[in-house]
Specification:
The chain has about 675 residues and is mostly beta strands. The chain is built from 3 helices and 38 strands. The two termini are about 40 Å apart.
């Protein structure tokens, strides 16, 4: 139906273009007489033309060494030559229709080489863009747009590959004086496809967005946004089966802010969000997701020394077995009785329910900070305290969590949000849920006390920097009541602007007053101290050193940590600088073999070695031998750009080398660009 409507509109538009009488009449109606002579009326005029000629070379190379010592590699060099032209102009009059039309041709010569096969291919791609802006300066403008491009997509350290993007749609606005509310409506369709060494991209998105905005004087506004989105995806790892998925999402949000009082001393902000999401994976329906947020906030400035705040929060999420609702109410004061003394205090109430467990909490919190004047520096003393009464009830032993987002960088492990996760309940998939990953092949799990961490495996199908979805179950914790007293004391001193010393002490005590928890309640005592020294020298030199010591005593997972950082900054000729840095991070988890013993070095050179040239070189090394699976990472990147008027040469190169146990991976990514812009 939508394609038939578009074709009918195209026929109607062509008829209008061929009828000069109608265009002359429309111009006379929509354009004031005083402006008719400022621009020449003509059926079609091009006002300017621009374009470019470019040549690119990209290289994506991947190399693995397995535990058994087997070597496998893949390499894809690509040459591209592109020419593109775009013209701006108008039809009959700029006040009536402005356009921008463009197009280009891309020639591509690619070759694929691997340890088992090789192939080559030559392709010709075209690009096309068109945008028509109707009645641009009227209170009822609208536009049509179409774009087909072939950009080179970078997936961070995982490589670069060519994609084909098609995007078209329409936009309509209604403004004053016809409508006191600014209204915008945009409908669009996009298709993105591409394939790299280890990833396939195949997504289609249909989207409709309605936006309404109204101001009510300075500082006062209300806006409403509605968005409906459908995404069909067949994207994923090239080495795993892909299940097609479709995702329908509808969302509405209302955001407003109003100022009250004779001096506008009261600010009321309100945010309301509602989202529904349905997902289909292959031939199966995934549980629908519904979320509602209501978040009013009031700030009242009573005087220069006193203001108060009042916050209410209601959040509700439902998805299959997951039914989470949380409410909280906070009322408090910020006070500044003296220049050297500030503080804050509040009372708070929380009510949470989550798939078989509930928690009611009542508490107070306060903080006071004293900043006395001292010779040759500054001193800050602060004390914070929180006291809560909590009543937890559990009807179920386990609580489900669905769709937790985790980004996996390199081989660094990332902790999941909840504690006491049930072993064997974790499932990991990509964002579109077209693929599921396997523990031991694609990722590994690390348990430290009550915490579970997830770590990417080099030889798996999760790419470096990829965000994944994690589903799991965790222990509800039992039915019991308890009190919590959390105290923090901090001292921070700075001398001669270059030396900073600090010490922090935290004491969190938990007293169970009724019932029996099924997991440890975990009281904590923690001492943190350290300092930082930054010293500038003559000639632009500088150096610095910092140290932090943490000693945390707790029931579940006590640990001791030392962290040291050092750097030196050296000026170089040709408007250049060199920065060398080193760090050491050691964590001893007393009840786990998964410790941290990390050593890192980095080098950064920034330079303008020649006229119109910018260079940046970054190299880093990181080694962690504290856990049961040692890891090592080398990262290097080079960026060079030279410009002369409309001509540009740029080079971007990255090389990453990872070792995880006895497995090695190397990735090289290069982009060389020569581009000449021109005006006609």
């Amino acid at each position: 139906m939508s394609h038939e409507i578009l074709r009918a509109f195209d026929r109607y538009l062509l008829t209008l273009l061929q009828n000069r009488f109608w265009w002359m009449a429309i111009v006379m109606i929509v354009t004031p007489a005083s402006q008719l002579h400022s621009e020449e009326i003509t059926p079609f005029r091009i006002t300017d033309t621009e374009g470019f000629v470019a040549a690119r070379y990209t290289l994506d190379e991947n190399r693995y060494v397995s535990t058994e010592g087997d070597v496998s590699w893949e390499k894809r060099p690509i040459w591209e030559e592109e020419i593109a032209v775009a013209s701006n102009g108008y039809i009959y009059h700029p006040k009536l229709v402005e356009f921008k039309l463009g197009g280009g041709i891309l020639f591509q010569q690619s070759r694929f080489e691997s340890s088992t096969a090789e192939a080559s291919d030559n392709d010709i791609h075209y690009s096309l863009s068109a945008k028509l802006d109707f009645l641009k300066e009227k209170p009822y403008p609208f536009s049509l747009f179409y774009e087909r491009r072939h950009p080179s997509m970078s997936l961070g350290p995982t490589g670069r590959f060519l994609t084909e993007n098609t995007y078209y749609g329409a936009h309509f606005s209604l403004r004053e004086p016809i409508s006191p509310v600014l209204l915008n409506l945009t409908a669009s369709h996009s298709e993105t496809t591409g394939q790299g060494l280890d990833q396939i991209l195949d997504d289609t998105i249909d989207q409709l967005t309605f936006h309404a905005h109204r101001t009510f004087g300075p500082g006062n506004f209300a806006q409403f946004v509605f968005n409906t989105n459908r995404q069909d995806s067949k994207s994923g790892s090239i080495n795993l089966p892909i299940q097609p998925s479709s995702n329908d999402t509808d969302s509405a949000s209302l955001h407003s802010r109003f100022l009250f009082g004779d001096k506008e001393q009261i600010t009321w902000t309100n945010v309301v969000n509602y989202t529904t999401q349905s997902t289909r994976i292959g031939s199966s329906d995934f549980p629908d997701r519904t979320r509602f947020d209501f978040l009013p906030d009031v700030r009242w400035k009573h005087s220069d020394k006193l203001d108060s705040f009042y916050r209410y929060s209601y959040r509700s999420t439902e998805q299959g077995p997951v039914d989470n609702t949380s409410e909280s109410l906070v009322a408090g004061l910020n006070f500044r009785p003296y220049k050297t003394l500030t503080g804050t205090a509040d009372v708070h109430i929380e009510d949470e329910s989550s798939s078989g467990k509930t928690r009611d909490l009542y508490g107070v919190k306060g903080n006071i900070t004293y900043r006395p004047e001292i010779p040759h520096g500054t001193l800050q003393l602060s004390y914070g305290v929180k006291y809560d009464l909590s009543d937890r009830r559990s009807d179920e032993v386990l609580v489900p969590a669905i769709g937790e987002r985790v980004t996996l960088e390199g081989t660094t492990s990332t902790a999941l949000n909840n504690e006491f996760i049930v072993a064997g309940s974790i499932e990991v998939s990509n964002l579109n849920r077209t693929q599921s990953y396997v523990e031991g092949l694609d990722y590994r799990l690390i348990s430290v006390g009550s915490e579970v961490q997830i770590q990417r495996i080099l030889t798996g199908n999760i790419t470096d920097g990829q965000t994944v979805l994690v589903d799991y179950e965790y222990e509800a914790g039992g039915t019991f009541k308890h009190t919590l007293l959390d105290q923090n004391l901090q001292v921070n001193a700075t001398f001669f602007r270059h030396l900073n010393l600090f010490a922090r002490f935290r004491d969190q005590s938990i007293d169970v007053t009724d019932g029996q928890p099924s997991v440890p309640v975990n009281p904590v005592q923690k001492i943190t101290y350290g300092g930082r020294l930054d010293v500038p020298f003559n000639g632009g030199w500088s150096a610095g050193f910092s140290a932090t010591i943490e000693d945390q005593d707790e029931e579940v997972s006590p640990f001791y940590r030392e962290n040291y950082d050092a750097y030196i900054q050296i000026p170089l000729p040709f408007v250049s600088s060199l920065r060398l840095s080193a760090r050491k991070d050691k964590v001893d988890n007393e009840r786990s073999d998964e410790d941290v013993d990390l050593t890192g070095y980095s080098l950064l050179i920034q330079s303008r070695p020649f006229n119109r040239t910018i260079l940046k070189l970054l190299s880093s090394f990181e080694e962690d031998v504290g856990g049961t699976l040692p890891r090592e990472t080398w990262r290097s990147s080079l960026s060079v750009e030279w410009r002369l008027r409309h001509f540009r040469i740029s080079l971007q190169a990255r090389h990453t080398r990872n070792e995880q146990g006895t497995v090695e991976q190397e990735r090289t990514d290069v982009l060389l660009l020569l581009k000449r812009d021109f005006d006609l």
